[in-house]
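Narrative of accomplishments. A recurring question from our advisory board has been how the design workflow behaves on a single, concrete structure rather than in aggregate. To address it, we present the structure tokens for one chain from the evaluation set, followed by the sequence designed for it. No filtering or post-editing was applied between the two.
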């Protein structure tokens, strides 16, 4: 996995225009080593508190995120930094202390034109009870997904109608049976077994003759 440590001025390339002035004070008030990391499947960002051999805060953010996802992820990790400063390791990672810090950090970015209206609306709803990852909030994830660079022929399962077919990374093909609130019930065509997928899983949409949609 390639990583690139960077200065805060490069953040202007990755966050919404105008947001830098609100982000910069966190780096002025704390010694933070920021690392831009190539895509990681399991995490969008990461925070590590100071240790003896590395006496500074360490934050990494995936460089492939769209500007709105990048900013939210960066502020998510800065909220972890603030929690560590106040509580060290005496509280849970995404407990009430983190939720409070994240809301406090995020609110000044609302209503300033940094986010499109659909993202800001979903983000405001998310802030009522922020979770460990934006990927667990269907509304916010879908709003942010619209601004990602789209892969040809790919869709979120939630955006496909029951009866449609899709293919996952290992080549297996499924038919959507029904959508529930956060999961979709799907049948594998080869063996007829039923599986549940997260509704915000990105998959390759297929025609019913199994040819991929270009």
């Amino acid at each position: 996995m390639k990583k690139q440590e960077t200065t805060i001025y490069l953040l202007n390339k990755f966050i919404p225009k105008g947001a830098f002035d609100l982000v910069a004070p966190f780096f002025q008030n704390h010694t933070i080593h920021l690392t831009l990391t190539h895509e990681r499947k399991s995490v969008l960002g990461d925070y590590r508190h100071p240790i003896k051999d590395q006496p500074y805060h360490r934050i990494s953010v995936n460089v492939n995120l769209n500007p709105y996802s990048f900013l939210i992820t960066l502020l998510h990790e800065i909220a972890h930094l603030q929690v560590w400063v106040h509580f060290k390791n005496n509280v849970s990672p995404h407990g009430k202390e983190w939720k409070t810090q994240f809301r406090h950090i995020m609110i000044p970015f609302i209503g300033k034109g940094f986010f499109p209206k659909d993202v800001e609306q979903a983000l405001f709803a998310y802030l009522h009870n922020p979770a460990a990852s934006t990927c667990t909030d269907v509304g916010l994830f879908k709003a942010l997904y619209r601004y990602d660079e789209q892969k040809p022929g790919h869709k979120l399962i939630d955006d496909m109608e029951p009866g449609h077919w899709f293919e996952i990374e290992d080549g297996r093909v499924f038919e959507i049976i029904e959508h529930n609130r956060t999961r979709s019930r799907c049948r594998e065509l080869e063996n007829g077994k039923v599986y549940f997928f997260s509704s915000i899983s990105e998959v390759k949409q297929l025609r019913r003759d199994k040819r991929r949609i270009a």
